[in-house]
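re: ur question from earlier - yeah i can do the single chain one, its not a big deal. heres the input i used so u can compare w yours
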Amino acid sequence: MPILSLAMIVKNEAHRLGRCLDSVKGLADELVVVDTGSTDGTVALAEAAGARIGHFKWCDDFAAARNEALRLCTGTWILVLDADERLDPAALPRIRQTLRAPQAQGFLLTMRNHLPSGAYVGTHGGARPDPGGCPEAAGLAYITELPELRLFRNHPKVRYRGRIHEMIEPSFEAQGWKAVPLPVVIHHLGKADPTHELAKQEAYFRMAKQEAEDHPSDRHALYNLMQEAAMVKAWEACAEAALGFLRLTPRNAPLKVRLDGARALRELGRFREAQELLEAAQPRPEARSALLAARGDLLEAQGRHEEAAAAYLEAINLDPRFTAPFLALADLLRGQGDWGSAQALLQAGLDQNPKDLLLWQALVGQASAAGDIPAAGRYAWEALAVFPQGGEGVWHGFAALALIQKGAKPEALEVVARGLKAFPGHPELEALRKVLEAPA
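and the output i got, formated as tokens:
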């Protein structure tokens, strides 16, 4: 009988499934991959790796799909991963040793989310610098971390619950079992591409809304609805979910509940309620800058620009690695017509955070908005040196236009060719290519 089964659900993951499976070679005795409707080579790739394949008709329920994967597992222990995750190499010997003489029925592993910017806020505070250890995340300088129950004993009554951001903890605890931390890292790369993340949000919001309607007193369902509503800017739903969560958990609520709730209330013009949420927050010391930035956002929304700027500056001074206040203060300065100070601020942010994608986007975007194509091209070229796949073709276009203005057409054509290699069929780059290749 296998000791450890890997359980996965997948759909159209041929581009990254192989690297996930490679990360458990020599550890997992059984690979169970449940496909929910792939149209690419996902299933063939999993079969070639020796996986046991299951098929599940998608029904807007991640827990149902997960549970089908668990049902097919025959190992004594189950490890759950997604295709955009990698088990850290140092985890393999530690997990092997732990399962030889397990001291618990399940283990909390560290989910390390790799991020392209320090402007992100996790459950309890802002992102922090990436300590390294994941070659695929080499271009990403930030992380957030959270413990997750991903390794547990196989038992027919231990099953996932929840349509989205599903959890196994409730049924695990129903058996009277406790999970203990195991110093093992799972690298999560799914948040590295903001565009890919946004493409899923409407469906995620729909599922989260249905789950919260079905379970209005479930804190987990309300938290999921809050964060998914914030992603699609459904502010009424976001605010009510955050307030509902706080009614159920008035103390020790994750900071993100107050931050997202206050943001939603601010967007709705409910400033007093937003202020009350922020004033009641008791963040960890490392998360104070995120709270200060949120206060700055609220002050700015009320037209109190000097106070907002002071809050942003305090947040920057407290933790210059948290880049959201750089972006917010630059926006405020631009709105006041002080483009020079905004540019200087973004450059100062990049001096301290040279691998921050959102700071680069803001710097290039500001130069473009000002009509300064040479500056936009220069910044875009510098940004591409840090993020070769960044800008979605726009950065290549600005760099090429700046070269054209200098009369350097061969160099511009080379930049356009690079852009089309990274973003095939990009319409603006194709148009530039035709212009540059046209006879003089």
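The chain has a mean pLDDT of 93. not sure if urs matches, ping me
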